[in-house]
UniProtKB/TrEMBL annotation:
This is V-set and immunoglobulin domain-containing protein 10-like. Keywords: Disulfide bond, Glycoprotein, Immunoglobulin domain, Membrane, Repeat, Signal, Transmembrane, Transmembrane helix. PROSITE patterns: FN3, IG_LIKE. It comes from Onychostoma macrolepis. It holds the Pfam family I-set. The chain crosses the membrane at residues 587-611.
């Protein structure tokens, strides 16, 4: 019976041409490549069932469903897909979004499903390839250096990297992964030309980049020329330093930690060397890109006797309870031996020597001598420790742009060692804060935002050093003028005012005020009168004189000086009047000028009388009344009585034997001679 059914089945198979089982198979490759924007079809064929149900999946997501010979779609994204009558699926205007794995399933009711799988790769045209680096610079010795590419459009199916034209392979030194080329532990040998080649089924693109691996500096090579162990003062020498690196490293020379002039080739030329140039010279090589540095030292020794003279000084130590004496005589080869024999017989040192003394009261005003001995020279220096001496404070004022007044009290007492200053107000010691600031050396007190109403007070500065102290009280005064004066020019068109202020007066400036006609100028020839004082000049606090021009000699002017502290005006100076009624008149001045020659004439006459009276060897008779009258009239012409000596009347007569060699001049001839002069 079983054989009969088999024969019937075979017969039916030959009659119908197939067995009614559903089957499916891809038409063409299952890996499909497509260009963005084109239409692509995943083609299948089926057999055994005329109208099976078709379902397409992207991964596990259903994207299309229909029945063969029925073009209506159900499911998702129906606008993207076009169903084919044979169950194939066409993508319209495909984009890279649809890259993926697609599975088609067909089934017939009551039968098992059949399926086929496709792989869709959508590519775009590769454009605008760029090469990047991470980090920015390739540095020798780093862990890795990465080259990677980016594109503005398109993806590569195949990526190949080349170095100087040779294709690179994965290995211990190069690692190629995705878009990256990784160079492990780059070295200077990796410097060169790198190329990336990107290809896909529809395009290819190449990009290049030169990579320079930075390295160095290598160990510097030092040279000293001429090669000598010791140099003598006055000689010259060259120092050079070289090292390999990329970029070529820069060279800087240091001497005892301080940079010295270095040529562009990295050499230093030392001429006329001295012992002060003995020491360690350091060559520092630096890669300016990587900032990597290497350095080497060389010691230069110069022999010379110490230069100059030893220097003595003293300073306070141990909180001001002791004095430290210092004797400095550097240089020399060997160093000089220095000591303080007046402080200790056995103690000494070399070059820079110090000694601390705790019992200091007996040292005030005592000269302390340091002896300095060198094989070539012996000398000494001394220092006299003293307590502070009397001093006078100095007051300075200034005004900021926001019109705040700053007052500075400077207390500096001459003392050895230098004295520290304590500042006291109202019995309280002042400290640095918003209102008061004390300078680093404590000799200056800064009073910020000075207010004339509240800050005028007595400030005490005490200068202290370990030997003694001095205290000075400073009472700040408001803006004042102690005295003033005025001087008029010869042509009476210009006046100079001078003034003084108290030493402790707080002043930031002066207003020069005038009452009277306006000052004349070429641009304003006409005069206008003002009955009140007005400010015509403003002078700084340091000013003590000023000049006002443009006065008219025919008018009267009044001047005064107003001292100011910030916006506060102080007491005005006395008023100074300038005008026709002030001082000597023009006639008086002319009289004085005319009287001076007359006074000189009378003085010559008197001298002539004295001379002739002593030389007269013949009888002398009284001077005639006419001459006496002439002399008296000359005397009355002098308005200022320049001749104040009295003339004694001559005696009635006197007999004297004349010399025979030559007759002496008579009194009358002397008078005539003086009158002629």
């Amino acid at each position: 019976m079983q054989t009969l059914f088999s024969l019937i089945f075979v017969l039916l198979f030959f009659i119908t041409g197939n067995v009614c089982y559903l089957s499916i198979s891809p038409k063409g490759p299952v890996s499909v490549e497509a260009l963005v924007g084109t239409n692509v079809t995943l083609s299948v064929s089926h057999a055994g069932v005329p109208q099976p149900e078709v379902m397409w999946f992207e991964g596990s997501l259903l994207v299309a469903k229909w029945t063969v010979s029925n073009s209506s779609l159900s499911g998702v994204a129906s606008g993207v897909f076009k169903p084919e009558l044979n169950g194939s699926l066409t993508f319209m205007n495909v984009s890279r979004r649809y890259n993926g794995t697609y599975t088609v399933e067909m089934n017939n009711i009551g039968e098992e499903k059949v399926s086929a799988t496709f792989y869709l790769f959508v590519y775009d045209i590769i454009m605008n390839v760029f090469l990047h680096t991470d980090p920015g610079d390739a540095i020798e010795g780093e862990v890795r250096f990465t080259l990677y590419y980016s594109t503005m459009q398109g993806e590569a199916k195949e990526v190949r990297w080349f170095f100087n034209g040779l294709q690179l392979r994965n290995g211990s030194h190069y690692s190629i992964s995705g878009k990256n080329l990784i160079i492990n532990q780059p070295s200077r040998n990796d410097t060169g030309h790198y190329t990336v080649l990107l290809t896909n089924p529809f395009s290819s693109e190449t990009q290049h980049r030169n990579i320079t691996v930075l390295y160095g500096p290598d160990m510097p090579v030092l040279k000293v020329s001429p090669t000598k162990a010791v140099f003598v003062s006055g000689e010259s020498l060259f120092l050079s330093c070289q090292a390999e690196g990329e970029p070529p490293p820069s060279t800087t020379w240091f001497f005892n930690g301080k940079s010295i002039a270095t040529s562009s080739t990295g050499t230093v030329h030392l001429t006329n060397v001295k012992t002060s140039q003995s020491g360690i010279y350091t060559c520092v090589m630096m890669n300016t890109r990587t900032e990597a540095t290497l350095q080497r030292n060389v010691t230069i020794i110069v022999y010379e006797s110490p230069s100059g003279e030893p220097l003595c000084s003293v300073q306070a130590v141990n909180g001001g309870a002791a004095l430290q004496f210092l004797c400095l005589w550097p240089g020399g080869a060997p160093e000089a031996q220095v000591s303080f024999p007046g402080l200790s017989v056995n103690a000494s040192g070399y070059g820079n020597y110090s000694m601390t003394i705790n019992d200091i009261q007996s040292l005030n005003g005592r000269e302390i001598i340091c002896t300095a001995e060198h094989p070539l020279i012996q000398t000494q220096c001394s220092v006299i420790p003293r307590g502070p001496v009397d001093f006078l404070p100095v007051i300075l004022t200034s005004m900021s742009q926001d019109e705040q007044t700053m007052v500075v009290i400077h207390c500096s007492a001459e003392a050895t060692p230098q004295a520290l200053v304590h500042w006291i107000k109202d019995g309280n010691r002042l400290q640095t804060g918003p209102k008061y600031q004390i300078s680093t050396n404590t000799t200056q007190l800064f009073i910020s935002d000075f207010n004339v109403t509240t800050d005028l007070d007595t400030y005490t500065c005490t200068a202290i050093n370990p030997l003694s102290n001095k205290t000075v009280d400073t009472t700040l005064l408001g803006p004042q003028i102690s005295n003033s004066s005025v001087f008029l020019s010869n042509d009476q068109t210009e006046v100079t005012l001078t003034w003084d202020v108290p030493l402790t007066s707080v002043i930031t400036g002066f207003d020069i005020q005038m009452k009277g006609p306006e000052l004349s100028s070429p641009s304003q020839p006409k005069l206008s009168f003002a009955s009140d004082f007005r400010t015509i000049q403003s002078k700084p606090a340091s000013a003590r004189t000023t000049t006002v021009s443009g006065l008219n000699p025919e008018f009267t002017y009044y001047f005064r000086i107003i001292p100011k502290a910030g916006r506060t005006a102080g007491e005005q100076s006395e008023q100074h009047r300038i005008g026709p009624a002030a001082g000597l008149s023009g006639a008086a001045i002319a009289g004085i000028a005319a009287g001076i020659p007359c006074a000189l004439l009378i003085l010559l006459i008197v001298l002539a009388f004295i001379y002739c009276g002593r030389r007269d060897r013949i009888p002398r008779y009284p001077v005639s009344r006419a001459v006496e009258k002439a002399v008296i009239s000359q005397s009355t012409l002098n308005p200022h009585r320049l001749l104040r000596a009295r003339l004694k009347p001559p005696p009635a007569y006197r007999h004297q034997q004349p010399e025979r060699s030559a007759p002496l001049p008579s009194v009358n001839s002397c008078v005539r001679m003086a009158t002629t002069v």
